[in-house]
Specification:
With 107 residues, the chain is mainly alpha-helical. It has seven helices and no strands. The termini are far apart.
């Protein structure tokens, strides 16, 4: 049995986390957030993109099935579907737009 890194961990090593933190601070993305911050939401959305998940229920079930590996993916716990829905509705889209422009400008 392979006990190494998950597929998401090496991909997340390429993310400039200091830049992500500055972008979140600039847009005040985590103001008033208690459970699921912008960086955690980004990890969940990257995980769902890599595993071809399309619906919130699908994302929730897949994260729940991988509870033992969540720490290695950079997440503490799997969020509830309602928490994911609220986070997706309330987060400013400009945070993730600025984050997407960063590697594009480097390329």
């Amino acid at each position: 049995m392979n006990m190494g890194k998950t597929l998401l961990a090496p991909v997340m090593e390429f993310v400039p986390w200091k830049t992500v933190g500055r972008i979140i601070e600039r847009h005040k993305g985590d103001a008033g957030v208690r459970t699921l911050g912008c960086a955690d939401l980004f990890c969940i959305m990257a995980f769902s993109q890599l595993t071809w998940r399309e619906w919130l229920r699908d994302i929730e079930v897949c994260l729940g099935a991988n509870r033992a590996k969540l720490f290695h993916m950079g997440m503490a716990t799997a969020p509830a579907r309602s928490t994911l829905a609220d986070a997706l509705n309330l987060r400013d889209w400009r945070i993730y737009h600025a984050l997407a422009l960063r590697p594009i400008s480097r390329a």
